[in-house]
Design goal:
Strand order of the largest sheet: 11-12-13-14-15-16-17-8-9-10-18
Structural class: alpha+beta
Number of helices: 8
Oligomer: single chain
Order of helices and strands: HEEEEEEHEHHEEHEHHEEHEEEEEE
Strand content: 35-45%
Number of strands: 18
């Protein structure tokens, strides 16, 4: 009796061994071979996860986006999936892939949804969108050297009476353009010359008293400032601001604020209030507009980023201003600044605007410094 039981057990072990051996030696019916690329740019997508859905069988694309995966017979009716960071997952039938000699797998870049997610996840998504916008500035914007013409206008009202009406033609030269956005790069490589001006009142171009430097500081894409500096994003409160269409392009709006404004975040040494919004295209993370509002108990008259020293007198107080920066054709196209403050007990309102009227990428003369005086 015991012998018969052992005999039956041995037979089952042998049969199971043959079955497992057969399983381990499944017939290869073909090879899925190809290249994973970005559907928008055509660039290879390196280290894409590639595998049979519902199994642990798979591989990954190499640094050039290339992959090769042999297909056992039992996977003939299954799907093969492709997933990579920053892209929408994709799955295709195994049978469709193995019948081609070389497949091109196009992955669509992920346009992050900012809808029904919790606050923590939402904040991560918004940080990712802003980081991608910052990272893509050199690809989306003009690189130098470039020269551009602009019209600069200022209107100043003192105690409800217009005191100044100015306009000037200004020539700018940017040695590097948007290739390496940073504050230091912008200050070092952007220079300008005031070619001609028309002015009324006591606050004159001929005295070197303009707000051009302050206006340039609102081109955050050029200087990699505020929410376009990924290192600063953890210090901001970010919220979805809805969606819009600009020039036929779908865009996302992100609002931002700082409860305790910093100089690096706001660009204002004395800021005690700072909020705004930024509009970004869905398809390529191109920056469309930046808008902001800042309040400060005081400002240095020579510039909002400077501290007031004992040598500085007669500085603006109770300062409040709004700014807007518009981008078009790979360049800043306009910057506006509306500012109100109190100076020597007078209530002053200033409206400034810089409009870019033409851009040259060749046949121009470099400008070696910021020339604050007319015709110098």
């Amino acid at each position: 009796m015991k012998f018969n039981c052992m005999k039956r057990l041995l037979i089952w072990v042998v049969l199971l061994s043959f079955a497992l051996a057969g399983k381990g030696q499944s017939r290869i019916i073909g090879t899925a071979k190809g290249k994973v690329v970005d559907a928008v740019t055509g660039a290879p997508v390196a280290y894409t996860n590639i595998g049979i859905e519902g199994t642990y069988y798979g591989t990954a694309s190499d640094a050039d986006g290339l992959f090769e995966l042999k297909m056992p017979e039992e996977f003939a009716e299954k799907y093969i999936f492709f997933s990579a960071v920053g892209y929408i997952n994709k799955k295709l039938k195994v049978g469709d892939l193995i019948k081609n000699t070389l497949n091109t797998i196009k992955l669509q870049p992920q346009n992050y949804s900012i809808g029904d997610v919790d606050v923590v996840a939402q904040n991560k998504v918004l940080i990712k969108i802003l980081s991608l916008a910052a990272e893509n500035i050199p690809q989306n914007m003009a690189t130098g050297p470039i020269s551009f013409n602009a019209i600069y206008t200022v209107e100043q009202t003192i105690n409800d009476t217009i005191n100044i009406s100015q306009n000037a033609k200004v020539l700018f030269f940017d040695k590097t353009g948007y290739a390496s956005p940073s504050v230091s790069n912008g200050y070092k490589n952007i220079n300008y010359s005031i070619l001609s001006s028309s002015e009324e009142g006591s606050y004159r171009f001929s005295e070197g008293a303009t707000l051009l430097d302050d206006l340039l500081s609102f081109d955050w894409a050029r200087i990699g400032a505020s929410v376009l500096n990924p290192k600063l994003l953890p210090g901001f409160s970010l919220r979805p601001g809805g969606e819009t269409v600009v020039n036929g392009k779908n865009c996302k709006v992100i609002t931002f604020s700082q409860d305790q404004p910093t100089l690096s975040g706001s660009g204002d040494y004395y800021a005690d209030g700072f909020k705004g919004k930024i509009t970004i295209q869905d398809d390529n993370y191109q920056i469309v507009t930046i808008e902001g509002e800042i309040t400060a108990p005081r400002n240095n008259r020579q510039g909002r980023s400077l501290a007031i020293t004992t040598f500085n007198t007669m500085n603006p107080e109770h300062v409040k201003y709004q700014f807007k920066t518009d981008y078009n054709n790979q360049m800043v196209s306009a910057i506006t600044l509306n500012r109100q403050y109190v100076l020597n007990k007078n209530r002053i309102i200033e409206k400034c605007r810089l409009d870019i009227t033409g851009v040259e990428t060749s046949n121009f003369t470099p400008i070696g410094s910021r020339q604050y005086f007319t015709g110098k």
